Amino acid sequence: MEAPKIPSDEQERLAALFSLELLDSEPEAVFDNLTQLVADIFDIPIVAISLIDESRQWFKSVQGLDVCETERDISFCGHAIYHKTPLVIENTAEDERFKDNPLVTGPPHIVFYAGVPLRYRFNNHEFLLGTLCIIDHKVRTLSELELKRLQMFAYQVESLIGLRLSSRRLEQANKVKSAFMANMTHELRSPIAGVIGMLDILNLSELTTTQQRHLELASKSAKLLLNIINDILDFSKLEANKVEAREDKFDLTKLFEDVFETFSLRGKETDKNYHLSLDWNTDLMVVGDATRLEQILLNLLSNADKFTQHGHIQLKASLVEQSEKDITLSCQVIDSGIGINANQIGRLFEPLEQLDNSSSKSYGGTGLGLAIAKKLCELMGGDISVKSESGKGSCFSFTIKLKRIRDTESELTNTKPDRQTSNKSSLSDIHVLIADDDLTNRSVIEFFLTRLNVHFTSAENGVQVSQLLTEFDSYEPIKLILMDCQMPMMDGYATSRQIREGKLGKQYQDIPIIALTANAMKGDEEKCLLAGMSDYMTKPIQFDQLFDKMVYWSTRKHKM
To answer: What is this enzyme's class at the first EC digit (predicted)?
Structure first.
């Protein structure tokens, strides 16, 4: 028996092979389907995609064998990659190199073999990874046409390997993008949250009319910037499939009335009329993603409001399909605004499209609102479209799927008990620990707690939290922690885990921890809860919501 020789470029070849991360990978249908097709076309019992590493040939896909690898020293494919040409052995009994090979004298009893090398370009050089080979237990001949077909299938294997690599690189790029977006979300939202919080505090002061006007403009600008950041974040999450539709029970009628009220108030200040039309007359309890439905409506109404200087804006909703379990909701937002040219409608829902460069200057916005609305509609089993004529207004229509709630189930339920509506005195006897490395955000929370007459202590990182918990243990224990997630030295996640593990005192293992974070990507809330936090809020903090959460947790312990 003649063992296969080692190629002169072996080290570089192995580097190319290892870079693909194919060895010892899980079975993949695209490769298995191809080897099965080859077996059917050639009417042959054994087909394998064989990859050669230092000591073995490993089968990425194999038909007709129960093993996933054999030794390289007895491999046929090792010969093929050394000679860099197709290897065809019509009868191994007549070939001195193979007639006493263990794979010939024993299982799988190879008599016929044909293998075409698999090529891969790496660092501007071409290397041979292994082969696509066919094997039979009897003598066969391979015609020139059959060899060409086998080579064509080998090219397909090479293409699949390339596509697999591209897909993995894309997945990795998406992971990097997601990590970048998560970090940028925190870095952008955190200072904006601080600005908005400080403006809210300033709004509580006695101001002159001019000062009040300046404050309103500053607050409006800050919230506009936050909305732009949220748009970019939402679109990135939707593009990366990191948004899942929630299934909340909610009153569909109330949702429409609340959204409509927000915009109808604007009509009193402008030359516009707002109309709401629902084709049902009573409360309607459904299951679906109320937050995302509200976001779609707000996007479309904001868009209509922006492009309508005077006239009317109408929100219409109807139930177009109903069964015992499901409802298809159809909505239209109709305006008498500037309208859209027919040749521009086709790209209206594409990201960053604003019809022309002057739109962003004249009307503002990121160009993401309609793209986000479209993706959210698709997420909830529906679609969105538009009919419009330049100078005559527009009608945006969308559908989504909702689940019906039977009358006996129409009571709204929450995953947590209702927040208490107690007065400020219910918090006056607790000691709160604030952990946040951002001075501005920390100051905003301190101001809020001061107005509630809540005693508090502040820390800039997890190390200070651990020190303070020990210091206050003897005479004034902490009863509640407001925890930022990203802090230097020791972050909120690690600090929470140490608290739950009892490393900072057994008496604090079940202390309520409310996450106050600028992170708003999918999975951030779950990450907080898994780290041992009790509740979760994103910045900028809504103080009425924080008050409710503090009241709720002031009388409860964290469930381990």
So the answer is: transferase
| Burial class of residue 325 (count of CB atoms within 10 Å of its CB; 0-12, 13-18, 19+) | exposed
Helix axes 144-203, 29-42, angle to 10 degrees: 170
**CATH architecture, domain 248-409:** 2-Layer Sandwich (3.30)
369 burial (CB, 10 Å; 0-12 / 13-18 / 19+) is buried
Residue 374 has pLDDT above 80, yes or no: yes
* Number of Cβ atoms within 10 Å of the Cβ of 136: 20
pLDDT band at 465 (very low <50, low <70, confident <90, very high): very high
Query: Can you say whether the dihedral through the CA atoms of 398, 237, 295, 301 is positive or negative?
Result: negative
Determine the 3-state secondary structure of 478 from DSSP: coil
Please state at what angle helix 492-500 crosses helix 462-471, rounded to 10 degrees.
40
Contact 82, 73 (CB under 8 A): no
- Class of domain 424-554 (CATH, top level): alpha beta
Taking the domains of the chain in order of start, what are their residue ranges? 10-142, 174-239, 248-409, 424-554
Q: Would you say the CATH fold of 424-554 matches that of 10-142?
A: no
**Cis peptide preceding 108, ω within 30 of 0:** yes
Q: Quote the DSSP letter at residue 222.
A: H
Asked if residues 113 and 92 have their Cβ atoms less than 8 Å apart, the reply is yes
What's the pLDDT at 352?
Answer: 53
**C-alpha span between 520 and 192 (Å, rounded):** 14
For residue 406, the model assigns a pLDDT of 65
d(CA 132, CA 35): 9
What six digits make up the tokens of 4? Answer: 């296969």
